[in-house]
Amino acid sequence: MSNALLPMDTRRQLLRALKTRYQAASKAEKTRILEEFILISGYHRKSAIRLLNGAVTSGNQRRRSFGLWCSCSAGSDRALGSFRSVVR
Length: 88
Fold this sequence. Notes:
Blueprint: H1 8-24, H2 27-41, H3 45-53, H4 74-87
Helix pairs in contact: 1-2, 2-3
């Protein structure tokens, strides 16, 4: 089953239901729970392990991007402006 077939809300509910069981389980039980979660949710194995071991988030956190276009001074704005005009 692919992720597109199972809505995100349903995957989050499933994760919340299995997370506490997974963290308290023995190694054999963890394997069985992990396989079940992968089959139902469509997540890749490592992603599923990270989700079951980590904190459940709402998915609304944004990552900050500090890249090339972050200006530090007026001089860098002029340099980047001329670079942008050349690239276009």
